[in-house]
């Protein structure tokens, strides 16, 4: 795949748009059966992830804590922030009891994400010897209203490492879900749901070879 080049002036424009919107989505309730873009950055300092082991630890805990409540469809973990994209499930099980009310499901997912941040932050504080946690309980989230925007959001999240100049080829970036889609083995992402959105693997690959359509997508991006 050829490198997707984003001019500096274009990056600045995108950052201004997304920074303006980020604070508007800290308290948006999550509901079962809907798509969500989740964004989180360090509350203090410049980094969330310091070592390869940090990325692996975060993903393991994420799968353990919220893996049974969401269909994870994309993620990209960068040194100072991360993006998740998932569909909240319509039915979940809590303490052997079925929960099918959309608001209740959203409550449990939100609590799960806060637990994930607390567990990860405690581990990182121990590792780095930092007195204050790097992650607080707040996180930005935005509802994604339809399949078309969902497809674009998945592409955007996968391209994010290249957009931020963390890598010159996002397809090889190890801390995103794109390489997992290329593999044959079962992973923490829901490949079946992703293929329902993209129809087939070739369509998935072809759409990732195009720059993000910022004009139609910018209102769904949340970066501080």
From TrEMBL:
InterPro entries documented for this protein: Transposase_17_sf
What organism is the protein native to? Breznakibacter xylanolyticus
Protein name per UniProt: Transposase IS200-like domain-containing protein
Gene Ontology MF terms:
DNA binding; transposase activity
One biological process term in Gene Ontology: DNA transposition
The superkingdom listed in its UniProt entry is: Bacteria
Gene3D superfamilies in the record, alphabetically?
Transposase IS200-like
């Amino acid at each position: 795949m050829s490198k997707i080049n984003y001019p500096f002036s274009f990056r600045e424009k995108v950052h201004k748009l997304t920074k303006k919107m980020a604070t508007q989505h800290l308290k948006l309730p999550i509901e079962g059966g809907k798509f969500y873009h989740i964004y989180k950055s360090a509350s203090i300092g410049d980094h969330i992830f310091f070592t390869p082991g940090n990325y692996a630890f975060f993903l393991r805990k994420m799968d353990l804590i919220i893996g049974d409540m969401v269909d994870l469809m994309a993620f990209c973990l960068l040194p100072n922030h991360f993006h998740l994209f998932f569909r909240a499930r319509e039915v979940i099980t809590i303490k052997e009891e079925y929960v099918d009310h959309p608001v209740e499901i959203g409550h449990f997912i939100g609590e799960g994400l806060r637990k994930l941040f607390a567990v990860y932050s405690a581990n990182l504080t121990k590792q780095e010897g930092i007195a204050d946690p790097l992650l607080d309980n707040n996180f930005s989230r935005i509802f994604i209203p339809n399949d078309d925007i969902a497809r674009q959001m998945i592409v955007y999240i996968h391209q994010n490492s290249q957009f931020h100049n963390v890598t010159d080829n996002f397809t090889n970036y190890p801390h995103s879900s794109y390489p997992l889609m290329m593999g044959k083995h079962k992973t923490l992402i829901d490949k079946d749901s992703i293929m329902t959105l993209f129809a087939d693997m070739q369509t998935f690959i072809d759409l990732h070879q195009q720059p993000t359509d910022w004009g139609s997508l910018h209102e769904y991006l949340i970066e501080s």
